[in-house]
Amino acid sequence: MQPSPKQQEQTESGKGPRFIPFSPLFILPSTRSGFTVLLNQNDRLVLYAKGGDIFTEAHRQRLLEMGVERVYVRAEEKGFYEEYMRSHLGELLDDETIPPEDRAAAWYQTSIGITREIFQNRLSTPATGKRFAQIEGLVKDTSAYLADPKALKKIAAYIQRGFHLYDHALGVMVLTVSLLRTFPQADDELLFRVGMGAILHDIGKTTLPEYLLQKRSDLMTPEERRLFRTHPAAGIAVLAGMTLESETLHCILFHHEQSDGKGYPAGVASQELPLHARALILCNAYDNLTRATPDGPAKNPFEALTQIKADRERYDIECIKRLIMVLSNAEIA
Fold first, then answer.
1. DSSP labels for 80-141?
2. What does 34-53 look like in DSSP terms, one character per residue?
3. Where in the sequence of the chain do the CATH 1.10.3210.10 domains occur?
4. Residue ranges of the HD-GYP domain (predicted)?
5. Residues 133-177: tens digit of each pLDDT
6. Fewest C-beta in 10 Å: which of 79, 81, 100, 207?
7. What is the pLDDT of residues 180-239, one digit of tens each?
8. Residue 109: which region, alpha, beta or left (left: phi > 0; alpha: psi -120 to 50)?
């Protein structure tokens, strides 16, 4: 006999919830699940759809007609559920039949899971304590901000262009916030604004042709390179109509500038770049180096930092020192 939904939040030997609730609106027609969907009937969880089944419109419509607000997945199948949400997040955010608050909840639920993995894998530290709590709060606040239907449509287009872009964006956010918080002048409000800018920094790439995102930079023609370099400014245009703070806009517009003034789109030098932009520029470069891209395979942290040191004229030296300390989990006075 299955435990009741009331018991699903209870833990066994500290292992966490036995069942995970989710909205039936997240069941998208013509998609396949790797997890079993359970339904509450008479305060007991019973089988509704088997793992591997292809969802149909009838699956979702039947639940809505019954007035079902939550269905459940077993905790041991959490990985399959999370993979399903990641694979279909863009579609969910773009589905106007789902209320904006539910779409924002899907964004938060999926993003915080990815953020937790990035935090643990990139910073080699458990996703516990004040450092992660601060990032978790930032993602939660961002989800509330993005609950506007227009914002959700823009984020949906961003994610649908390629989840690797979004995963990279969250990676840059984790690194930039972790780096900036070592500076005493970086308060919570600044971290929130910069965190949102990091998440949105590559949204201008939604305006570029798909083939260009898959092409090695050294094989681009002069015209293709010129077009590619429009994406920071294009990002500002994409977000026109959204109320964004200047720090957020700096992150989007300046993320490919360099301290030596040889970056783009405007060739702004270090002395004209605010600290938060210099931090993001460095973290964007580091995250790109440690991921497989059209320009080459992923480098390990040592190789990435060696490359950054070789190109040190491009970056803020103090930020390089602090990033090394953050990556080594050292305390910074």
1. HHHHHHHHHHHHHHH-TTS-HHHHHHHHHHHHHHHHHHHHHHHH-S-S-HHHHHHHHHHHHH
2. SS-EEEEETTEEEEEE-TTP
3. 99-327
4. 139-333
5. 989 999 999 998 888 999 999 999 999 988 889 999 999 999 999
6. 79
7. 999 999 999 999 999 999 999 999 999 999 999 999 999 999 999 999 999 999 999 999
8. alpha
